[in-house]
Recover the amino acids of this structure.
């Protein structure tokens, strides 16, 4: 299956995976059997927790709850500013959907993802079963997972996010002049937190986003660019140390028998010169000093 054919995992399935991690099949089966005993009218979802009542044996009632801390709102105005530049995320939120890209945007700006992991969720149950978490807690997890598939906005409620207030703030304020304008007049950031499961780069740089970045080009050029990005190696290239310069035999011999400055510089006092063809004839002054008469004297 190619990357473009992969489907995003639903919020309900993500919640189910986190809640049932390291839980054996027998306990999961017991949780599913206990699921009908939940009094659905008594299920209460509020900011920071889920509470429910379940019917136990002999007519007993068990109080079950899940707790998770709400998101910090200190940097929420910054998230609103960035959210204005993402048309697709806004449209999804208006339809009461929570895209994966919004989860990553919250994690980047707020410092904590919208979707929690299992370690950040605590639980409680009034039953006296020895296994932890008990089947009542697992049944409540399953119930909420099914609710997320139908009402994904309940995840925002659980984390203390007011969806209607957030969308109202996104629309009521004029565009931020402090942020640079978007290139090519596009309606949103071309590369902004991919919505797919694996968050690969070529998923964030789709065909439409690629056209936004480099203009209207041929399909062949777009495919070649995406293929080049997917072929990039994630392993760092090792840096080779520079090779030492080879030492020649002539340099070795020269270093073994050093010469003095007097031997290297030829003497000019003797007036002797080489008899090479390229040397100029001696001047009259040089000939007089050498006691050799010349035609000029």
């Amino acid at each position: 299956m190619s990357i473009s054919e992969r489907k995003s995992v639903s919020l309900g399935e993500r919640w189910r995976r986190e809640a049932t991690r390291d839980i054996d099949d027998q306990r999961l089966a017991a949780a599913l059997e206990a699921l009908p005993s939940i009094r659905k009218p008594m299920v209460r979802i509020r900011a920071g927790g889920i509470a429910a009542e379940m019917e136990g044996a002999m007519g007993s009632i068990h109080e079950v709850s899940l707790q998770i801390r709400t998101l910090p709102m200190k940097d929420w105005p910054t998230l609103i500013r960035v959210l204005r530049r993402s048309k697709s995320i806004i449209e999804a939120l208006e339809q009461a959907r929570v895209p994966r890209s919004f989860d990553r945007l919250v994690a980047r700006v707020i410092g904590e993802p919208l979707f929690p992991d299992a370690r950040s969720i605590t639980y409680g149950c009034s039953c006296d079963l020895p296994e932890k978490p008990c089947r009542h807690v697992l049944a409540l997890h399953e119930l909420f997972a099914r609710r997320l598939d139908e009402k994904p906005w309940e995840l925002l409620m659980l984390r203390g996010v007011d969806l209607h207030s957030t969308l109202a703030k996104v629309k009521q304020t004029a565009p931020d002049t402090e942020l640079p304008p978007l290139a090519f007049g596009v309606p949103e950031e071309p590369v902004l937190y991919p919505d797919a499961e694996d968050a690969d780069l070529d998923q964030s740089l789709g065909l439409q986003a690629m056209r936004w970045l480099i203009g209207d080009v041929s399909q062949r050029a777009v495919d070649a660019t995406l293929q080049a990005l997917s072929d990039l190696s994630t392993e760092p290239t090792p840096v080779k140390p520079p090779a030492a310069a080879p030492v020649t035999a002539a340099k070795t011999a020269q270093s073994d028998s050093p010469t003095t400055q007097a031997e290297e510089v030829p003497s000019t006092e003797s007036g002797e010169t080489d008899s090479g063809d390229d040397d100029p004839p001696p001047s009259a002054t040089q000939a007089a000093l050498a006691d050799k008469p010349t035609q000029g004297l």
In short: The chain has a mean pLDDT of 74. Strands lie at 44-46, 49-55, 61-67, 122-125. Residues 10-71+114-160 form a domain with the Ubiquitin Conjugating Enzyme fold (CATH 3.10.110). The radius of gyration is 40 Å.
